Amino acid sequence: MDYVSLKQMIDTISTLGKYHVCIHDVSGILKKTCFKIPYWYAIHSKNFCSLAKSTQKGFDTCMNCKNCANHRAIHTGKAFAGLCAFGLFEAAKPVVIDGKTVCIIYLGNIVIDREKTLEKLRATCAKTLSPVTEMERELASSQEQTDIQTVIALCDMIDSYIRLLYEQYKDADIRDDSPYHWAVYNLKKYADENYSQTFTLESVCRLYFVNEKYAGKLFKEQIGMSFHEYLNKIRLQKAAGDLRNGKDRIIDIALRCGFNNITYFNRRFLEAYGMPPGQFRRLRS
Asked: What is the pLDDT of residue 7?
C-alpha cells in the first residue's frame, strides 16, 4: 500500500487553520524520500518569527528558546506546550523510534490567550529591540485557539504518521538525491538562510545534537572548506550582489551581510575579489 508523503500530510494540517508545522530533524530522517519536506517546514518560517530574529538579540533569544525546547524534548521524550520567548503558543513532541528521538514536531503560530501573548511579546521586544508594532500586526495571521487538546492531538497525528511511514519504508532501498550527510546539509542550509546573523559552528551543532568536531570535519570533507569559510563565502557573495545593485553605504552592506567589523570585511573582500569594496562597486555597478 502506498501512503501520502509527510509533506502532503503537513499540507493537509495547514489547511485546517493558520498553524505552522516545523519538523526539527536530529537524525537524518528527513533525507529519506518519503519524509522530504520543504525547508519552511523544517524551521520556524512565519513572518512573525523573521521579525523576531531581525535583531541580533532577537535572533539569540529565539535560538536559546529553541535550544531549551529541543533539549527538553530529547531528554524527557514527552510532549509539552507553552509560550515561546515572544509570546506565541507552541506544542512540541519528540518522535521516538526504537528508543531514539529521530525528530521533534513543533506545532505553533497559535494564540491561546491574547492578553498574555501581547504582554510577553512587548516585554521581550523591549529587551531585544525587535519591531513590536509590526509583530503585533502579524498576530492577525496566527491561529486563534482555545482548545489546547486539539493542538496536542494534531501533534500526535503527525507523530503517528511519521512512525507509520518509517515502518512502511524502513527496509526499502530509498536513495537520497542530496550528496551531503544530513548534518552537513543542515549546517549548510542554516548558513545559507541565517548569514546576516552572528552564530558559530558550535551553536548550530547544538541545535542538531551533533558533535562539533565531527560535524566540522565532515563539513570540510564534503563542502571543500570549513564551516566558517563557507559562511564568509556566502556573506561576501551577498555583499558583492548588494554592491552591484544598490547604493547603500558599504558599512551598512557589511553589517547587513553579517560582518560586524568593517576592517575585517574589507580585508576578506579584497582577498576574495582582488579589490576593495569601493573599487568593486565603481567597476561593477
From this structure: 94
